[in-house]
Amino acid sequence: MKESVKESHKLIKDGKQTEHSKAIKNSSRDINKNILNDRNDRSRSSLNSPVVWYETKKPFRWRPLAWRRKQWLLLLSLAIFVFLVNATLNHLDNSDPDNASDLDRDGDEKNFRLQHLHSHVPGMKEHKPRITTNDLTLNLSSSSSFSTSYFTENVSAAHNSHIPPPPTGYLVWSERCKMPNLDPYLPEMMRHFKREKYKPCHIETPLTRIEFNQTFGRYTLRINQELVKVYSKKKPLDCCYQTIERNSTGGRADCDVSLSECLSFRDRTPLASTIDNILVTCRANRKQIYRNGHPLMPERPDIRERLSAWKRYDKTHNRKKPPNVLMIGIDSISRINLIRAMPKTAQYLYDNEWFELSGYNKVEEILLNSSIKIDLLQIDDNTFPNLMAILTGLNKTTALKRCKPTVLHGLDNCNFIWHTFRKYGYVTAYAEDEASINTFNYLKVGFEQPPADYYLRPFLLSAEQHLQVKLKSNLIYCLGYQHSADYVYEYALELSRRYRNDTYFGLFWTNTFSHNAISDCTSMDGRMVEYLKRFADSGTLNDTIVIFFSDHGMRYGPTRKTNSGHLEERLPFIFLWLPQQLKQEYPSFVSALSTNKNRLTNPYDLHMTLKHILALTGRVKNKLDELAPSESCPRCQSLLKPVPYNRSCDDVAIEAHWCTCLHYQSIYKNSKTVVTLTHLLIDHINDYVENFQNKSFAKLCVPLTFDHVESAYRSQLELPDKQTDPNTYQDIYRILFYTKPNKALFEATAIYNSVTGYMKVTGEISRLNSYSHDSECVSDGGAKKYCSCHKKKIF
Question: Which regions are flagged for Basic and acidic residues bias (predicted)?
Fold first, then answer.
């Protein structure tokens, strides 16, 4: 039989098989099991007899394949089982009572548990902090009561409690505000996103360093002798330092600095207490081989006297040391981009009991229809109005009118919150990198007198002129041996070290690694975590309230045209840190911040929070004036109190153009209504430019004309008489449109009545693409983004 089969196989191979065997091969080429069962009978037959092939439903050659399929099914079933078990365990792990929207309380008990605040950043491993029993249980009887008439709650605590968290896909959910959440990794955003590695600014360690001697109250400048041979192997070093001095008066006081004569030193030299900043230069054989700068915080008699006087006041009135306040801000980072681009930083904040405010919405006010004098409309940036809301409680229009940032002495006479902190016994500091676009200097005069006790701007102005510079996205990313942002954060750390036993207030703002591109901040993720850990390890967080925040999301670039980009621009990140002692003394603060996580909040609320902190000191005497509600948002309140559940943008002075509570639906972009409305918006822009500053730019700019609509959205206003009175039939339209010439891209929000033809622009009309080359003929920011200059005639 075996020989017969071999011969048959040979015939098949040689193409000489019978017609029957050909048919069987073409159909399935199966070998029948019956051949094996009857092989003894067929073996008796003649070897020359033809080989008979039989068809079968279960071919022999499929048996190993069938076994492999069973193995795969078994493995798949096992994997599904493991996944379900893991998901169940995770659910049980997260379903503890700490996940409640408010702190769990028993009616007659005095103890409660801190809310579980940790969230998870996609792609990051969650590390839950170790919390001791003493941390979890706080004695309410030890807390002192705090009741002030000027901090009122619009909604009682009972009304705010037991409100369920927002449904999946939303940050805030109420009848009047439905703020959507976003997936950080949507393709429309990720196609423009690229993670970058951290790169140090210099491979060599700086040759010089400064040290503060607490006993003598002065700094010492030292040369690191171990590094001398690294910088100069054979030639001796000649080093000297220059003091950086700020011009004291005039319109250029905040822009010009000067250097003193270079004073030689060897190894080390003490620095006078009058020196704020120094520039160090070292030469070998008359060749400059090293240059670096060092900002200082020298001991000053006037500061020490002020702090000592308030310490005596606290001691006399048997009061504890008030909490310090650190405000650490990063420009142009939305809440979602913090998670996307800086996941290590976000996860660190979630894992270490920082309080997030997910519903924090930026603010800004319309200027096109403002009634104030037109010559004040020179500001075209989003940082200024959002920081002014925090620092003064004023909206953009009122701040421009009252603080006059384009006029000498204007900002000096402005009532910033840091002046109030300084008045009541705080040492103050302000630092911001990238001097050319500083919040109070970009298209503004700045301060004639230093706005705070310690002011970093003079040092950075000099450093940007004399140190080696490396650009990233057209901003000064590296400045000498450090990143520009490093100088700001080191300045904050120095403030916390120098005044460890005193009270201080500081604002520290960075632009250089985040302002111009959505991916730039990725390289500073790990670096930011290092600084946050250094604040914790140094003990700074033990008695300091820290506000870690941004002003808005990315305002320009390709991502801004997307729906995600629209929301991200309006929703910056914000986290608050409360010291453990303060949480024990005021457990209601913990409850309020936990509740406010998913409520609509804004910069005016943050302003009222700073006033609330001032009230805690017990030092403020004229409370009705100095701790009064925000002038531009009377209904805004401290974040250390539960904010109303059913807040709307109208309640808290957020224009519809910036409001993320509205539910928009995409509509046909070329509809008659949309095109008509777009033409009205273009006419509105042209009228504004023509009449700007008494028509001084009318002849320089070409009137804009309609090109096409990029996208259009509509949100219906809920008005009581909408069904009966056609005059109240108003909807909100959000339109992205291009104009001629030069393809200028704008976004506008308008209230429109299709019956009466009434239109009202809400908020400013935003320019979403670059206009630096389009409007070179105009230097004023108020008209620059709307102007397209006439082409120069070439003869």
Answer: 1-44
Cis peptide before 97 (omega within 30 of 0): no
What does CATH list as the number for 665-789? 3.10.450.10
Average pLDDT, rounded, for the chain: 83
CA 680 vs CA 355, 486, 684, 685: distances in Å: 44, 48, 6, 9
Sign (positive or negative) of CA dihedral 352, 353, 357, 358:
positive
CATH of domain 208-295: 2.60.40
Pairwise CA distance, residues 701 & 689, whole Å: 8
Alpha-carbon distances, residue 375 vs 370, 403, 789 (angstroms)? 12, 14, 20
d(CA 321, CA 314): 7
Query: What are the backbone angles phi and psi of residue 549, rounded to the nearest 5°?
Result: -155, 175
Long-range contacts at 183-192 (CB < 8 A, ≥ 24 apart): 184/122, 184/336, 184/337, 184/339, 184/340, 185/122, 185/340, 186/564, 188/559, 188/562, 188/563, 188/564, 189/340, 189/518, 189/559, 189/562, 189/564, 189/565, 192/518, 192/519, 192/557, 192/558, 192/559
Beta pairing, strands 454-455 & 427-432: parallel
Q: Hey, what are 69's tokens?
A: 């399929």
CA distances, 538 to each of 6, 344, 431, 534, 682 (Å): 86, 20, 20, 6, 55
Three state DSSP letters for 369-425: CCCCCHHHCCCCCCHHHHHHHHHCCCCHHHHHHHHCCCCCCCHHHCCCHHHHHHHCC
Q: Enumerate the domain spans of the chain.
A: 208-295, 301-651, 665-789
Count Cβ neighbours within 10 Å for each residue of 384-403 and write b for 16 or more, e otherwise.
bbbbbbbbbbbbbbbbbebb
CB atoms within 10 A of CB 763: 21
* Percent over 70 (pLDDT), the chain: 77
Query: Of the given ranges (22-31, 198-207, 292-301, 518-527), which has the lowest mean pLDDT?
Result: 22-31
Q: Say yes or no: do domains 208-295 and 665-789 share a fold.
A: no
pLDDT tens digits along 93-116: 444 333 333 333 333 333 322 333
Give backbone dihedrals phi and psi of 165, rounded to 5 degrees, phi first. Answer: -65, 160
Dist. CA 144–CA 409, nearest whole Å = 42
Provide mean pLDDT across the span 620-629.
88
pLDDT digits (tens, 9 = 90+) for 666-704: 999 999 999 999 999 999 999 988 888 778 778 889 999
301-651 CATH choice from 3.90.870.10, 3.40.50.300, 3.40.50.150, 3.40.720.10 = 3.40.720.10
> Looking at the whole model, is its pTM more than 0.85?
no
